[in-house]
Amino acid sequence: MNATIYDVSRLSGVSIATVSRTFSNPDRVRDATRQKVFEAAEILHYSPNAIARAMARQRTDKIAFLICKRDATILDEFYARICESIMRRAIRSDRQLVISTAADWAQAAGTAQNKQVEGVILGGSAQADMVSEFQRKHIAVVLVNHRMPGFDIPCVVSDEYGGMRLAVGHLLQRGRRDIAMIAGRISPYITGERYNAFLRVMGEYGLETDARHIRMCDPTVESAAQTALELLGRKDRPAAILGGNDVVAAGVLKAAHRLGLRVPEELSVVGFDDSTVCGMVEPELTSVHIDCRRIGELGVDRLHALLNDEDCPQVTVVPAELRVRGST
Amino acid sequence: MNATIYDVSRLSGVSIATVSRTFSNPDRVRDATRQKVFEAAEILHYSPNAIARAMARQRTDKIAFLICKRDATILDEFYARICESIMRRAIRSDRQLVISTAADWAQAAGTAQNKQVEGVILGGSAQADMVSEFQRKHIAVVLVNHRMPGFDIPCVVSDEYGGMRLAVGHLLQRGRRDIAMIAGRISPYITGERYNAFLRVMGEYGLETDARHIRMCDPTVESAAQTALELLGRKDRPAAILGGNDVVAAGVLKAAHRLGLRVPEELSVVGFDDSTVCGMVEPELTSVHIDCRRIGELGVDRLHALLNDEDCPQVTVVPAELRVRGST
DNA sequence: CTGAAAGCGCTAACAG
DNA sequence: CTGTTAGCGCTTTCAG
Questions:
Q1: Protein residue closest to D13, using CA and C1'
Q2: Which residue range(s) make up the domain with A148?
Q3: Which of A270, B30, B109, B228 has the fewest CB within 10 Å, making it most exposed?
Q4: Is A273 found in the same domain as A234?
């Protein structure tokens, strides 16, 4: 149906080998020849068949982004951002991108194999055996927003500790010393990371962390609101609450509203991720900005390095920033 | 590197043709043979090479979802939902999915051609020439969340009119007769559709629509808030405002807050899309739920029908629902 | 600089 | 039910 290299060869009067060269190594054919070939191709609406090329070259230039997350995938704004960034970067570097969900990762690995994926970016809570499976199939692996100590895999993560330090520092500047944290069950890695960062930073600032001021909840507005209600209902209520992410923080805002507590006058609230909800709620939410764009880009870059046998740092940490808004 | 059909053939003692059959038409080989082949394949970790298969069959089972939208793509929750749904459906029907942005649609069309995409789902403001380009390349096209009168292309859209009727009907039930609309510039199609639906529905209910009560704004919270401030600052302020989508409605909520207007007591607010922000804002937002999941699924189904030369309805309308929450 | 020819891994007649 | 064989469209030595 579509024109092939043979059609172009016939019309331009050169061999198929030359046509092939013209498209993959333009500078290895004479100017005049190239001209002729391009003309013929133009007329025939010829465009090289990537499948056939992959077949002949034994490489596909195809990579995958696998979101390892139970429920929402691309629906989670955080991953949507990373994904978007990966998409752009992949296009720019002429790689085909396959996006998939790891609902069934064994299947995903199988698919990756027979679809000839050369490398995969694992986002979120990847499991060790998942990684091994890919490696066994000779598929390069990079972790994004996750780490796997003991495994020899490059990973790109955000500086959760740095972000937390900015957040706590900011609250102290605002005169809040009694700071609580509601760590939603976001993902094992992120939740743990932020939780530990909180303890560490509080320690560094010489602040006490009352165990009762650190709470867990589901990563939903309602669950967060309930948890915040408990926290704020007590006599020794905290002066500030850090949400494990923006959704949790939005829940805190809701709780404050129900209790008639004014934010930020009577309570400061800080979120994590700097997602779009920050601008929607009232007051707008101060939040730690995670640079998803950068994380995605670096993920692709690391994968490229791996595929080209170049040097590739094991751990890349992307700085976080604080976006101050009305809630503090 | 990976085992091929030849390796399996050798190990199992049957011809490559039989190995091939075993994987594509299992019931066309004897039980015992199939057994042998699968065993050998298991041992060799063989998995059919989709590229080679595509090459031989002259079909790729590959489809694309192209988001035709200037700025945000997958970052727009609305499209993320459609995309997610398309992903699931595509996997289920064993099709490979390529997701891309139509920043440069000519390039996209070229890519689609040489990557051997068989059909494409166009989401958002697709242009006529874009469609022609695909058709010229013999690539099947389906429109999602968009229509193109005069073009012979199946499309799947939400029932904006029905949604609007639910919204307005609900407001009337709440005793609001003086209803305004702020139609953000969401997309030419959606904006127009909702705007027209509003006029029509108001007419059907025998309500006047003061031209000053229909406003335009950018689809950002801030722009919507500004516009709402003007609308609400007037003496004859409306009793209810319909936002073109949830972001716009959130802006209205912000404006009400600034003016000290209580929602829903003094002002009712309704959004469109039923996105996650609805649950985050205070009060929670009543919104018209658009069934993105269904839209995505149907988009894939229509494309399949097209690719299989089956009957395929030109226009599919997906019903909308009203989700009543605190803002009304 | 260009051409001839041998695959890449698999499918699909066509025979047997 | 199974095997033989001729491609699918392109790349890549190897000669010329």
A1: A17
A2: 62-158+293-319
A3: B30
A4: yes
> CA(A205)–C1'(D6) in Å?
76
The predicted-structure confidence for A62-99, as pLDDT tens digits, reads as follows 999 999 887 778 999 999 999 999 999 998 888 889 88
Q: Which two tokens stand for residue A296?
A: 């995605």
Task: Decide if A328 is inside a domain.
Answer: no
* Structure-token pair, residue A19: 């046509």
CATH number at B307 reads 3.40.50.2300
Tell me the C-alpha to C-alpha distance, in Å, between residue A171 and each of A163, A239, A328, B53. Answer: 13, 9, 7, 60
Cβ distance B112 to B59 under 8 Å? Answer: no
d(CA B47, CA B2): 8
Cα B81 from Cα A318, distance rounded (Å): 28
Which of chain B's residues have a Cβ under 8 Å away from the Cβ of A75?
77, 80-81, 84
Residue A105 CB in 7 A reach of strand D: no
Chain A nearest-CA distance from B189, in A, is 23
Q: Across the interface, do B45 and A254 touch by the CB < 8 Å criterion? A: no
Tell me what the pLDDT averaged over chain A comes to: 92
Q: What is the mean pLDDT of chain B?
A: 92
Footprint of strand C on the protein (CB under 7 A): A 13-18, 21, 28-30, 32-33, 55-56, 58; B 4-6, 16-17, 20, 23-24, 46, 48-49, 52-53, 55-57
Residues A212 and A175 in one domain: yes
- Could you tell me whether strands B321-323 and B286-289 are parallel, antiparallel, or unpaired per DSSP bridges? antiparallel
